Amino acid sequence: MADTFATTQPDSGTAHGPKGGPALPQERRIVTAIPGPRSQEHLARREQHVATGVGTTLPVFVEAAGGGVIVDVDGNSLIDLGSGIAVASVGNAAERVVERVVDQVQRFTHTCFMVTPYDGYVDVCEQLAALTPGDHAKKSALLNSGAEAVENAVKIARAYTGRDAVAVVDHAYHGRTNLTMAMTAKSMPYKHSFGPFAGEIYRAPMSYPFREPAPITGEGAAERAIDILEKQIGAINLSCLVIEPILGEGGFVVPAEGFLPRLREWTAEHGIVLVADEIQTGFCRTGDWFACDHEGVVPDLITTAKGIAGGFPLSAVTGRAEIMDAVHVGGLGGTYGGNPVACAAALGAIETMRELDLAGRAREMGTRITARLGAIADKHACVGDVRGRGGMVAVELVGEDGRTPDPVRAGAVSAYCHQQGVVTLTAGTYGNVLRFLPPLVISDALLDEGFDVVAAGFDATA
Ligand SMILES: Cc1ncc(COP(=O)(O)O)c(C=O)c1O
Fold first, then answer.
1. Distance 58 CA to ligand 1 centre (A)
2. Ligand 1: which residues within 6 Å by Cβ?
3. What is the pLDDT of residues 352-394, one digit of tens each?
4. What predicted TM-score, i.e. pTM, was given to this entire model?
5. Does the pLDDT at position 100 exceed 50?
6. Is pLDDT of 14 > 90?
7. What band does 12 get if pLDDT is binned at 50, 70 and 90?
8. Looking at ligand 1, which atom is closest to the CA of residue 177?
9. Cα 341 to ligand 1 centre (Å)
């Protein structure tokens, strides 16, 4: 009898299609309209079976991805300027990730760390202790998603301080669970119709240099936030301040220098746990291991996810050992948290970041992208602001007054890029920000070609 599963594959493929990873031809190749006919067929199935509430930015169905490209079922090869929202920083199917994952899958796939532990989990926690800011004693708990990490950071801060209130900032994004929806600022699409929300969440103004009504220093913006928190909630009632050092979904807003250090000082004075949400900014994305490193800010707790594991679902809360250990035994965890395959992927991703110096690469990339976006800004008055750091850069699009958000133009430029085979993302409270998060392993040639298309998108929509 023929062995149904034994197939002879060409070297470049698997039983399910072409092989991804860095060996994939690094080229933009458009062979059909986008989405192509096969993607359209898949889309019809998706519409039948997948809930409408799960959105899609660019409806091409993926067959393989690696380096800086995504290949769809029609044979189009798209330049990836999004990394699956800052996840595939080491590239899709990165070699070290695949090696370690295959090895782990063949040994065991799950025992539940809370039932019978394994070294991969502890290895990831050890790496997190070494890589995150500060040289104090640290411990970690591993979870599955970013939102879950943020929820756990709040639980830990409440247990440690014995206080309830949680401070967050304007334009923040922390996830889609009940608590993290309450912490997220933007109503549509994240919160609308999903209330009631968790209580004891208080919002302070962020430092948003482009949108300040009058010039204000980073320290001044921090004092403005502190004033509101002290007057309206009281420092003594706050368990934690949770803040993204550079806003992600909020539009890559980089706070003015001095904002984060002043908040660090104030939280320390009042025993408030400072939680840096580095889920989008972490793991080399901004040109350092973590965005807090840029101004030497050492948070008490740090939440990480996304880039940590090369595409596998893994997240973490890492922080001062005495804070992490304030929680009673059994108070933290979850069935899948720190799954052994996801931990193996994280170890492979971290190894890749070290071997390829992806923090350095992100810095180089930042210079290159900023120059390209600066040239676009010189030509098109609709670009009100170019901002970001390392491999996390954005432009904010505005109307003729130089201020009114222009989400329509941002959407039009992004749609043009998609048609031309370049994956771009939008963001921002007003939906008027085009954000760029390329895989940190993308070649300069592909990056330049991607930004040629972005530039053409601004010309074509003028
Ligand atoms: C800063 C930040 N926090 C939390 C989250 C939520 O992560 P997840 O979607 O994995 O739950 C995100 C996701 O975009 C994020 O960018």
1. 20
2. 85, 145-147, 150, 173-175, 244, 248-249, 277, 279-280, 305
3. 999 999 999 999 999 999 999 999 999 999 999 999 999 999 9
4. 0.96
5. yes
6. no
7. low
8. 11
9. 21
Calculate how far, in angstroms, residue 315's C-alpha sits from the geometric centre of ligand 1: 10
Q: Calculate the CA dihedral of residues 311, 189, 263, 389 and round it to 10 degrees.
A: 50
Tokens found for residue 27:
């080229």
Residue-level pLDDT at 13: 67
Q: Which of 283, 306, 317 to mutate to test the pocket of ligand 1 (most atoms within 8 A of CB)?
A: 306
Give strand pairing partners of 69. Answer: 66, 79
pLDDT above 70 covers what percent of the chain? 97
Å from CA of 459 to ligand 1 middle: 33
pLDDT in tens, 328-342: 999 999 999 999 999
Q: What is the pLDDT of residue 18?
A: 77
> Are the beta carbons of 420 and 81 closer than 8 angstroms?
no
Take residue 367 and report the two structure tokens written for it. 């210079």
Return the sign of the alpha-carbon dihedral for residues 448, 349, 394, 28.
positive
Residues 6+ apart with CB under 8 A from 50: none
Nearest CA to ligand 1 atom 4: 174
Q: How far is the CA of 274 from the centre of ligand 1 (A)?
A: 18
Q: Cα–Cα distances in Å, from 89 out to 57, 104, 342?
A: 19, 21, 15
CA–CA distances in Å: residue 285 to residues 103, 182, 288: 27, 26, 7
pLDDT at 4 over 60: no
Q: Are strands 165-169 and 238-243 parallel, antiparallel or unpaired?
A: parallel
Q: Whose CA is nearest to atom 8 of ligand 1?
A: 146
Number of residues that make up the chain? 462
> What pLDDT digit, counting tens, does each position of 280-296 carry?
999 999 999 999 999 99
